[in-house]
Amino acid sequence: MSTATEDTLSPQEAEAFRAKVRDFLAKNASGNMRDGNSVGVGREFQLKLAEAGLAGLTYAKEYGGAGLSRAHERIYREEYGKFPDMTFEYVISHGMCLPVLNQFGTEEQKRTFMPDNISGRTIWCQMFSEPGAGSDVASLQTKAELDGDEWVINGQKVWTTLAHVSDYGVVIARTNPDAPKHAGISMFILDMRAKGVEIRPIHQIDGGKHFNEIFLTDVRIPKSWLLGELNNGWNQATAMLMFERVAIGTGSSSGVTHTLADGLIEVAKKNGKISDPVVRQELMRIYSEETAKSLVAMRTRAEMKAGRVPGPGGSLGKLHGSRISWMSRPLISRLVGPDTDAWEAEGSRGEAWARRLLNSFQSGIAGGTDEIQKNIIGDRVLGLPREPMVDKDMPFKDLKVGTQR
């Protein structure tokens, strides 16, 4: 089997496992990112996690997982939520690429790629968006053509998180331009260091370089690196986006959390603004939203307990996260003050809040815009009529998209 099922643990078994997790985290979840090297620190933590038999808890042992149950994973999440998040840079590698490999990969692909992914020896990225295909990803123009025993890929991707430090990526490309745009797409595994892969980091407003644009020029990959079915890439990409929204919307921990509100409450106490009724009201709004987001996440995980692909409910958590981000911006500025504009030293409180404020703007875009999430919720959760699609049945080669104008 590919993933473990939900098991009922005895109180003694549950407590023994909880004690093991708590002991491991107390020794290893330091929260020390060492000069911003969060990827490297995350890899070290994940390797130790694998050595302790706590990585990939619900994935089968033959694929590098621990082969444990959803009950074990729930306990781990509950305990992990009490410690600093050491692997937040692996949210795409573990939250999106890993479940897609497990869901659609061949036996050979699973045995080849999943163990190193789970242990953190390799880190993965996701290559969907293009300059002419953002919210409408199905308009992508990157193409893959079969040449003997190899696929040859040409095109461009953009806004690819952590591509510059990734070992592998999951990429979607057009394999049948004669089919309608949703029907002629396939998914592939890509070596990020292969000849013809050029990665250019994008400089961000907060001074970081988290995103990248990627140019693919005659990149050759083995024929066997087709991930899933030929020309079924859109359905697989949709599943991957669902995994993404669940990963973003549910986070790494379990239970009800309100980390942002807790941090802002602490700031308000220190600067004497906690008694301001307007501040208290805004703090309570964020506290309530984070609580609601946690409850949605718990429901989503409960629906996934049988190992099923997550449904459109993941968009609810994603939209909650975006809402929390834009609600927090004026309150952060009000509470932290000028320190968010000019701070004294690297690593200071002001810098941390300034980065959080600046990064909050991406929450309404990354993983699908707020407008896309609302469409998904309206269509697939509430059952409202879909927006008309005039190009639904047209061959992609006849569409005026990207450079085909």
Q: Going across the major beta sheet, what is the strand order?
A: 2-3-7-6
Average pLDDT: 87
Instruction: List the domain count as a whole number.
Output: 3
Helix/strand class: alpha+beta
**Helical proportion?**
40-55%
Low-confidence region ranges? none
Shape descriptor: globular
Radius of gyration: 22 Å
- Give the end-to-end Cα distance, rounded to a whole number of Å: 47 Å
- What percent of residues are in strands? 5-15%
Given the structure, what is the number of helices? 11
Order of helices and strands: HHHHHEEEEEEEHHHHHH
State the total count of DSSP E strands: 7
Sheet of most strands: 4 strands, antiparallel
Verbal overview:
The chain has 405 residues and is α+β, with helices and mostly antiparallel strands. The chain has three domains: 113 residues, Acyl-CoA dehydrogenase/oxidase, N-terminal domain (Butyryl-Coa Dehydrogenase, subunit A, domain 1, Orthogonal Bundle); 107 residues, Butyryl-CoA Dehydrogenase, subunit A, domain 2 (Beta Barrel); 114 residues, no CATH class. Helix content is 43%, strand content 12%. The chain is built from eleven helices and seven strands. It has a four-stranded antiparallel beta sheet, with no helix packed on it. Strand 6 and strand 7 form a beta hairpin. The N and C termini lie far apart (47 Å). The mean pLDDT is 87.
